[in-house]
Design goal:
The radius of gyration is 24 Å and the shape is elongated. The chain has a seven-stranded mixed β-sheet with strand order 7-6-5-8-9-11-10. By secondary structure, the protein is an alpha/beta fold.
Length: 433
């Protein structure tokens, strides 16, 4: 009888209508597939049961997080090859249920069922979000979603992010091959935001989704402003407050565990929202923009730094990525940049500048993955193996998505103009004065 690897190759080819571009090594030690390609390691039959009981991305994610599936070889190459198969077909694995009308597909599924063994659905890995009832993006549900992602241990985030503790796209003015470091690039991003906002001594800055306090500390230390940073994460707030104290900035920086919707002590001269708006959701976005507009004084500036997705012909067909929603950013949503600009303007802002820094995020994510892989043993001591595997997969896959222009990231500078229409910006905006 043929080994499990050959049988899997044949069944997947029958199921997908194309050969798998990766090699397979199965639980019985057998191997099959392109000899020079990365190897998909199927450690046990349970991996197949996960795919059969939850076909598509979520089943694959569960198998990966649980350690039932792994990759031997370059993870980026393996993900790129598999993503290429999906994109060339113009569909994803979730459409396979509709393909069961095809006799060949049904035969392949029967073969997988036989190979998988007793049909008991494995329980999801403990790292998967347990869904409660109720509406999305209430203050309570947002607190729960933020806690799932950010309250996993500050030591783990230090390992991944490095000493800058900035969990958003860096700004690479020179490649690492020319001596630039992640620390340099994150400092340059914070300075870019500060210059776009025109920060100067005596101003008030609101940092929405302040994370571990990096922007707040930079703005206060380098530009002499007073800062209020708000986050929903208790662990982030504790870390940020210590940083502020260590820098001697407690008279200029206040870190709050507070929902941005509850901030009521405006007006502010400037607002930074860096990597936070992805958590807001389409239904709440106009409310988000309106709240920030309300908190600014006349002439105040907003710098909104946000990941964007490509627009769809039918926007009603958009659905959140299953893996990201279940394991990474619960309830997170991406919008096209045009939608974001429209919503900001509907709230009253004048949008003055949009800068795409998509390639910068790919470079940043690859650096984070390298940090994680370089100290994998420590990561496993700080978090569960499943959690570490989640972070490695999502960051590597995201790096490829940015490189292939499947998603992007943009900095949008918007102004609350004065009654007479004044923006306070120079005629040549890109000077950032």
């Amino acid at each position: 009888m043929a080994g499990a690897a050959l049988r899997l190759q044949n069944l997947f080819e029958q199921l997908l209508g194309a050969p798998l571009p990766v090699r397979i090594r199965a639980w019985d030690g057998s191997q099959d597939g392109p000899p020079d390609a990365p190897t998909l390691v199927v450690r046990n039959r349970r991996a197949l049961r996960r795919l059969l009981f939850k076909p598509g991305e979520l089943g694959l994610a569960r198998a990966w997080v649980a350690g039932d599936l792994d990759v031997d070889g370059d993870l980026y190459t393996a993900l790129d090859l598999m993503a290429g198969l999906v994109w060339e077909r113009g569909e994803d694995a979730r459409t396979l249920a509709g393909a069961l009308r095809d006799p060949e597909v049904r035969a392949a599924v029967r073969g997988l069922v036989k190979l998988a063994g007793p049909p008991l659905p494995p329980a999801p890995p403990p790292e998967e979000v347990r869904r409660g009832r109720g509406h999305l993006h209430t203050k309570r549900s947002d607190r729960r979603a933020i806690s799932h992602h950010y309250d996993v241990g500050n030591d783990f985030y230090e390992l991944v992010l490095g000493s800058s503790m900035v969990y958003s796209c860096a700004y690479w003015q020179a490649p690492e091959s020319e001596g630039a470091t992640l620390q340099d690039a994150q400092r340059d991003k914070l300075e870019l935001v500060s210059r776009k906002l025109g920060l100067s001594p005596g101003q008030r800055l609101l940092d929405v989704g302040c994370g571990w306090g990096s922007m707040a500390v930079h703005a206060a230390r380098e530009h002499g402003v007073s800062v209020v940073g708000v986050t929903l994460s208790q662990e982030q707030a504790a870390y940020a407050r210590k940083r502020v104290a260590d820098e001697g900035l407690t008279d200029r920086v206040e870190i709050r565990v507070q929902d941005y919707r509850d901030v009521a002590d405006g007006p502010y001269d400037a607002i930074s929202s860096i990597g936070m708006a992805e958590h807001v959701g389409a239904e709440r976005y106009l409310e988000y923009a309106t709240d920030l507009y309300r908190l600014l004084g006349p002439g105040g500036r907003l710098l909104n730094h946000q990941i964007a997705r490509r627009p769809r012909r039918d926007e009603s067909a958009y659905s959140v990525d299953e893996f990201i929603d279940a394991y990474v950013f619960p309830d997170g949503e991406l919008a096209p940049i045009g939608t974001t600009v429209t919503q900001l303007e509907r709230a009253g802002f004048e949008v003055r500048d949009v800068e795409s820094i998509r390639e910068h995020y790919a470079l940043t994510l690859r650096r984070w993955v390298a940090n994680l892989e370089a100290d994998w043993a420590t990561a496993l001591r700080l978090v569960s193996p499943g959690r570490a595997r989640v972070w490695r997969l999502y960051m590597a896959a995201s790096a490829l998505a940015f490189e292939r222009n499947r998603i992007g990231v943009n900095q949008v500078l918007a102004v609350k103009t004065t009654e007479s229409g004044g923006s306070g910006l120079p005629l040549r905006t890109r000077t950032w004065n």
